[in-house]
Amino acid sequence: MTAMTSGPSLIATLPGRAYTDPGTFRREQERIFEALWFCAIRSAELAGPGAYRTVQVGTESVLITRNADGALRAFLNVCRHRGARLCAEPAGEVRRTLRCAYHAWTYDLDGRLVAAPNLARMKDIDRDAYGLRRVALREWLGYAWVCLADEPPSFEDTVMGAAVERLGEAAAIDRYRTEELVVGRRIRYDVAANWKLIVENFMECYHCATIHPELTDVLPEFARGYAAQYYVGHGAEFASAAQGFTVDGSEGFGRLPGLTDAQDRRYYAVTVKPQVFINLVPDHVIVHRMFPVDVARTVVECDWLYAPEVVASGADVSRSVELFHRVNVQDFEACELTQPAMDSRAYRGGGVLVPSEHHIGAFHGWVTARLVEAGPRASGA
């Protein structure tokens, strides 16, 4: 475990304008969401070749599909001819090609230009050069992660490294075999709050005793105000009376294979900047993905992942879903209470962080550093 640092009890937060200024949000889109790895979709959502999803990443629409060999590919969702949106629907399926509805420029599932009206007469066109703009893609934990940067940062350092930094070793998250789990429930939340308020809320538990009675019943140490992720390698222990991570403390499902005894009856939380929260408990995994829409609006998709046999059997997952659903609703309502005050003259200089929240200061420092870094706008490769 890391030791608590000595120093003043109260340290400063970001100023209120950091949560309300449209210019700041535009820079965040450019220098954070369009420059770093972004968790886009659950890979299993694309069942076979030609299935596609579109995802908003910063200011760009990204098209993710499977090619003829079944491999995932990602492109900017823009026709190279006149810039029309190639796929207008959020999800769909094509047979072999992606065809622009405007002038019928047509691309194969690897993004190469394969057809267009009168293309045979334009023998000087390089079909590869005028193919769709590729976007870097990696798969991890059963999700497709994309990065718009021309030179993406190390996935191992910035994404997988976040789990190692939090849990102490790479194997700790690998043992959950998240890529093999199945979505038992997905809930989409439309939150009237800046994305940073949601990250800050997830990182601390100073509020837990106030607004999360169901959670602190199962994880009593949270009532003392220290979030599980404050300490490297620490998982919050279940209450002695709790049989499982459920809304009423009743029994859940069997322990996921591969977990150690040290991981049993414990809850771990990981923040993967800038937009993913991972919650690990013995019988399921909960993954939040944030999609910042505007300076004061964030969509959050939350997946509850279970062993395939649990979902296939039709087992009732509602008690485990309900626990974190209530936590989500409570958290997001709190964030929505906070957002309007970010414009108040009382908050122009920001607020303060108490000792159990001091680690949020590192997040603030990270955001500030990203925004002052110079560099051209990421455009895809």
Which helices and strands appear, and what pairs or packs with what?
Layout: E1 11-12, H1 22-33, E2 38-42, E3 51-57, E4 60-66, E5 72-76, E6 91-93, E7 97-99, E8 106-108, E9 113-115, E10 136-140, E11 143-147, H2 155-167, H3 170-174, E12 182-191, H4 195-203, H5 208-211, H6 213-218, E13 236-237, E14 266-272, E15 276-281, E16 284-294, E17 297-306, H7 308-312, H8 318-338, E18 352-353, H9 360-372
Short synopsis of the structure:
The chain is an alpha+beta fold.
Can you give keywords for this protein?
disordered C terminus, 4-stranded antiparallel sheet, 6-stranded antiparallel sheet, Naphthalene 1,2-dioxygenase Alpha Subunit, Chain A, domain 1, 381 residues, alpha+beta, 2 domains, Rieske Iron-sulfur Protein, 23% helix
Using the 3D structure, state the CATH architecture of the largest domain.
Answer: Alpha-Beta Complex
Q: How many β-strand stretches?
A: 18
Runs in which pLDDT lies below 50 for 5 or more consecutive residues are: 374-381
Task: Report the radius of gyration as a whole number of Å.
Answer: 22 Å
First and last CA, distance: 41 Å
Q: Please, what is the average pLDDT? A: 94
Q: Supply the helix-strand structural class.
A: alpha+beta
Number of domains: 2
Order of the strands making up the biggest sheet: 12-17-16-15-14-13
According to CATH, the fold-level topology of the largest domain is Naphthalene 1,2-dioxygenase Alpha Subunit, Chain A, domain 1
Biggest sheet details: 6 strands, antiparallel
Determine the strand fraction and express it as a percent band. 25-35%
Overall spatial form = globular
Helix-strand pattern = EHEEEEEEEEEEHHEHHHEEEEEHHEH
Instruction: Count helical runs.
Output: 9
CATH class membership of the largest domain:
Alpha Beta
Classified in CATH, the superfamily of the largest domain is Naphthalene 1,2-dioxygenase Alpha Subunit, Chain A, domain 1
Share in helix: 10-25%
